[in-house]
Amino acid sequence: MVKQLTVISGKGGTGKTTITSSFAALAENVVIADCDVDAADMHLVLHPDTFETNDFYGLKVASINKNMCVGCGNCATSCRFEAIGRYNVIDVYKCEGCAVCEYVCPVNAISMVEKKSGEYYCSHTRFGPLVHAKLGIGEEASGKLVSDVRRRASELASEAGSDMILIDGPPGTGCAVIAAITGTDLVLAVTEPTVSGIHDLERVIGVAQHFRIPVVVCINKYDINVELSHTISAYCKNNGICVVGMLPYNRIPVDAMVEGKSVMEYKENVFSSMIRSMWFEVSGRLLK
């Protein structure tokens, strides 16, 4: 059975991609899924060679048949999003797909149609297959796109006989995060020792626990505020959550990223040794 690990955080920039790409370098027979579809960046490290592109269709939007429209204006006055302007022209960026206009049209001139909202890709990388995506600017339904990425990753894992799927999850606690963690075997929550970091960590742990998914924690840049790091550790201990890693503030992840490498490929050092130890802890929990 393929095991799935999702790396998440309460906000962006905590080090999810740095850790996930490092885990990918250490893992064997793995499929990688970049589920941060609003701001995907795993490709910057893995340099994927795409072999499959799929269109993604999110919410349906309204379309008016000009040959049937009688210009009554019912649609424009009924649209609470003000998506229908002069001459009954629909602004697809404002349309929320509620279909009220279709309902109130007396001559059935309006229908809801599919709209391409992005793409998702399958690629070869030096660490194994990567499924990643690009959501269009201002588009909705990121959770649905995350589900498509995970579905395709599961298919590739099944085809290749992979042991594990590594998921670089989106930040926050919204629909995309829920789609990224639902049904996974373990969640790794990455946090930083700040007041907002503690607050965000509590929220993401709450989401994982709501779906009864085991969660472990990594405190990144723990030494920028040792006191708050101790507070986070105490919170985790009191709630039966294991802190699997405490990474120091270091320039190595930035330097590695600039060269398009994972931390594990950049150079052997104390920082990479800590990530290696964390991987052994996480993979041991995942595969036992």
Automatic annotation (TrEMBL):
Q: Which PROSITE patterns match?
A: 4FE4S_FER_1, 4FE4S_FER_2
Output the superkingdom of the source species: Archaea
| Annotated GO MF terms | ATP binding; oxidoreductase activity
Q: Which UniProt keywords apply?
A: ATP-binding, Nucleotide-binding
SUPFAM superfamilies in alphabetical order: 4Fe-4S ferredoxins, P-loop containing nucleoside triphosphate hydrolases
What sequence ranges are listed for the domain 4Fe-4S ferredoxin-type? Answer: 60-84, 86-115
Q: Which Pfam families match?
A: CbiA, Fer4
Protein name as it appears in the record? ATP-binding protein
What is the originating organism of this protein? Methanolobus mangrovi
Q: What is the lineage of its organism?
A: Archaea, Methanobacteriati, Methanobacteriota, Stenosarchaea group, Methanomicrobia
